[in-house]
Amino acid sequence: MDRSHPPSSAKNEPPRRGEERRTVTTLFCDLVGFTALPERHDPEVVNALLRRYYAAARRVVESYGGTIEKYIGDAVVAVFGVPSAHEDDPERALRAGLRLVDVRLARWRALSPVTRLAK
Length: 119
Fold this sequence. Notes:
By secondary structure, this protein is α+β, with helices and mostly antiparallel strands.
């Protein structure tokens, strides 16, 4: 078996029943410097901050028509184009990302001047 190439079925087979192939835009937002926070703050404080961050990220992403795909530690992964696609999904994702930077910077700076959103 040749392992140097992915299975051909991934590209050549039509989608299975109930599945469809779509072009989506993915937004990944990560807090730079977050790993140092638990060293300086109680776990309850850090968890409360993460919950607020997740809630704010959800509001921002959804306001631009995106969907939160998952949370990974201090990162948020969002997709645009699912369940509804828009011609300007890449622009929507970009605008959501820029808005997240604006929203989060002020709150995180109050707690830790070295914590910032990755750009």
